[in-house]
């Protein structure tokens, strides 16, 4: 399938972001967003998706975490889209049910070229560590629209709030790994339209 590595950056008055993503990595990550819990979530995504991920972000954290997390999602989505290229030979669809102790998260992905986020996860606390829980949805919204993917995320069983959030990020990594994986019998794009 060739090398599937993308380097993307974004600079605004609110954030400066550099990201390198290797879809065919081994789960190595080097992540610095200034938000400890968010770093932990992105590291879990990379580890369980077997993606190599480098993230460097300087954001206006003196305001709050919103711009940093949302803009990181935008650039990660761009990197996924760029690394996939024409999407020839990939499975396109991916899904995973991920248990984390008492919690259970579901993720399903279609790399369709049509962005959409369906999200069902109600957190009972306003923040986990230094990350606002309402930003979980905003992150995945940004990724889904920037990567042009159909993304469904749902907490099937609630419990500890840390576990719920971590299960979503890990499920996303596992489902994306399946969707971007090679289908040896499919040499072109897996669509009757001929493009994704």
Structural features, described:
This protein is α+β, with helices and mostly antiparallel strands and 196 residues long. The protein contains 4 helices and 10 strands; from the N terminus they run βββαβαβββββαβα. The two termini are 17 Å apart.
Task: Briefly characterize the structure.
By secondary structure, the protein is of the alpha+beta class.
- Classify the beta-strand content into a percent band: 25-35%
Number of helices: 4
Helix content: 25-40%
Q: What is Rg?
A: 16 Å
How widely separated are the two ends?
17 Å
* Sequence of strands across the biggest β-sheet: 1-2-4-3
List keywords for this structure.
four-stranded mixed beta sheet; globular; single chain; 196 residues
Helices, strands, pairings?
Elements (H helix, E strand, L loop, with lengths): L4 E7 L3 E8 L6 E4 L3 H14 L2 E8 L6 H19 L8 E8 L2 E8 L5 E5 L6 E2 L2 E2 L1 H14 L2 E8 L3 H20 L16
Parallel strand pairs: 3-4, 7-10
Antiparallel strand pairs: 1-2, 2-4, 5-6, 6-10, 8-9
């Amino acid at each position: 399938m060739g090398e599937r590595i993308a380097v993307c950056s974004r600079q605004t008055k609110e954030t400066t972001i550099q990201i390198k993503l290797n879809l065919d990595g081994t789960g190595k990550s080097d992540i610095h967003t200034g938000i400890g819990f968010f770093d932990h979530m992105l590291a879990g995504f990379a580890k369980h998706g077997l993606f190599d991920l480098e993230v460097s972000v300087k954001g206006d954290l003196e305001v709050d975490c919103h711009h940093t997390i949302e803009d990181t999602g935008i650039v990660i989505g761009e990197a996924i889209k760029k690394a996939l290229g024409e999407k020839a030979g990939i499975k396109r669809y991916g899904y995973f049910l991920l248990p984390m102790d008492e919690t259970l998260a579901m993720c399903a992905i279609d790399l369709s070229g049509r962005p959409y986020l369906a999200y069902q996860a109600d957190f009972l606390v306003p923040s986990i560590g230094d990350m606002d829980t309402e930003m979980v949805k905003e992150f995945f919204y940004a990724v889904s629209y920037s990567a042009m993917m159909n993304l469904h995320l749902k907490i099937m069983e609630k419990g500890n709030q840390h576990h719920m959030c971590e299960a979503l990020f890990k499920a996303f990594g596992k489902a994306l790994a399946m969707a971007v994986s090679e289908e040896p019998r499919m040499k072109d794009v897996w669509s009757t339209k001929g493009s994704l």
